[in-house]
Design a protein that fits this description.
By secondary structure, this protein is of the alpha/beta class. The chain folds into 2 domains: 219 residues, Rossmann fold; 86 residues, 2-Layer Sandwich (Alpha-Beta Plaits), CATH 3.30.70. Helices cover 35% and strands 30% of the residues. Strands 6-7-8-3-9-10 form a 6-stranded mixed sheet, with helices on both faces. It has a 4-stranded antiparallel sheet with strand order 2-1-4-5, covered by helices on one side. The protein has a 4-stranded antiparallel sheet with strand order 12-13-11-14, sandwiched between helices. The two termini are 46 Å apart.
């Protein structure tokens, strides 16, 4: 497994600024073997920084990151277990696919030329052209295939599906899952497409301004939030009334006598608690992962100043 324990990281600000910028603040998560783990977060939340720390590019200021019990920074053995596909491909511009294959074959002992050739042929990538002539999506396909051919135990993809059309996204995702299942490998993927994370991953975490908001199995995350619709025959529901009943409110709105409450907690528990107050309308609706993302960031003020200006 990958163990991230109490990790913090700061960067010095530009000369025009003062002090340092905290990219990550006391992050602790465990990524079990064989899972597909989604990294979610607002822009600049620290997802890419954490990924670079996991593969040993950055050294932690505080805390530790271990792969299978070994500290990853400055440790070739631990680094050899993980492949990181970042969101840039410019470094491969002068390479042909043959160059790309030979490059990674020289670094990864388990590299499989057969997997590389089979998958590049399946996708139909041009074999003899430099990657500078490839589209953004084609470059991304080539690097992901190289990552799969390296046959590492852990694979990290930072916005790996960016630039792919919907049909190719489906093909690449299926290709990744098939190859990883064959060897029970672990996939860590970041994406701004939350629906994609929901479909692909079994676990996820959310970062905002370098802080960890939650990290759990996706089903468990969803079960911890719900939307309540409630109304009484003799009075309008207020936010204060719901708080008195012990509802952990993230957002409250009312239309006529019917109130809608976005709340933290198990829906069945809140139904049981509110039923005793004799409402004429009471129902709960589960939230999607995207709705949870939005409400968790809204309650922390993300984007509210911009919306007020508009």
């Amino acid at each position: 497994m990958i163990e991230i324990s109490g990790v913090s990281m700061s960067f010095e600000q530009a000369k025009s600024d003062t002090g340092s910028f905290t990219a990550l603040n006391n992050i602790s998560i465990t990524i079990p073997e064989g899972c597909i783990y989604g990294f979610l977060g607002s822009n600049g939340a620290g997802k890419s920084t954490l990924m670079r720390m996991i593969c040993g590019v950055y050294k932690t200021d505080v805390g530790s990151i271990k792969i299978d019990g070994e500290e990853v920074f400055d440790n070739p053995n631990a680094k050899g277990k993980i492949f990181f596909v970042n969101d840039e491909t410019i470094q491969y511009s002068t390479y042909t696919l043959k160059d790309l294959k030979n490059y990674y074959a020289g670094y990864y002992e388990q590299f499989s030329p057969e997997i590389f050739d089979r998958l590049t042929s399946k996708i139909g990538l041009p074999q003899n052209k430099r990657m500078s002539t490839f589209s953004k999506g084609m470059k991304r396909q080539a690097v992901v295939i190289a990552a799969l051919a390296c046959r590492t135990k852990y694979l990290m993809l930072d916005e790996a599906f960016d630039g792919l059309d919907p049909a190719m996204r489906k093909i690449i995702k299926a290709m990744i899952v098939d190859e990883l299942i064959d060897r029970d490998a672990t996939l860590i993927v970041s994406s701004h497409n939350i629906t994609e994370i929901n479909e692909l991953c079994d676990r996820a975490m959310l970062l905002h301004k370098g802080n960890l908001i939650f990290a759990d199995e996706i089903d468990e995350i969803k079960s911890g939030f719900c939307k309540i619709q409630i109304a009484y025959a003799d009075h309008a529901v207020t936010r204060e009334e719901m708080q008195q009943y012990g509802i952990n409110i993230m957002q409250f709105s009312a239309l006529g006598s019917v109130a809608q409450v976005i709340a933290k907690g198990a829906g069945q528990d809140m139904i049981a608690m509110l039923s005793s107050t004799k409402p004429v309308i009471l129902e709960t609706v589960p939230l999607t992962l995207e709705e949870i993302f939005i409400y968790e960031l809204e309650v922390r003020g993300y984007g509210t100043d911009i919306l007020k200006e508009d």
